[in-house]
Amino acid sequence: MTLLFPIIYSAVLTYLVWKAFKVMSNGWSISGTEKKRSNRSNFQQKSYTIHPELLDKSGNITEEELLTVRFSNDNDSSLEEKGSTTD
After folding, report:
1. Pick the residue with more confidence: 17 or 50?
2. How confident is the model over 38-65, as a mean pLDDT?
3. 61 phi and psi, to 5 degrees?
4. Could you give the CA distance from residue 87 to residue 84 in angstroms, rounded to a whole number?
5. What single string gives the DSSP state of each residue in 18-79?
6. Domain ranges of the chain
7. What three-state secondary structure class fits 55?
């Protein structure tokens, strides 16, 4: 058993490192093609994702006011810089 454990451990570690390298290399190759694609599409219109909550029954963007929530113990330092006060 003491001889078998290091062999199994080494085999599993080698397999996992190989799989990790394979996944990273796929990401690098996709990243390279996205840069090439973005250079060509600089003049094309950008598409945006619209959340379904913002659409009415007919599929158009709603004109209703959106409900926002602000928590009283929010420690956002940007509010102090803008001069706003919290309730």
Report:
1. 17
2. 75
3. -70, 130
4. 10
5. HHHHHHHHHHHHHHHHHHHHHHHTTTSPPP----GGGB-TTSSBP-SPPP----TT---HHH
6. 4-82
7. strand
Using DSSP's 3-state secondary structure scheme, residue 61 falls into: strand
Model pTM above 0.85: no
**β-pair partners for 61:** 55
Cα–Cα dist 40/57, whole Å: 37
* 31 against 84, higher pLDDT: 31
Which residue(s) pair with 19 in the sheet? none
Q: How many CB atoms are located within 10 Å of the residue 59 CB?
A: 8
Q: Give CA–CA dist 31/47, Å, rounded.
A: 19
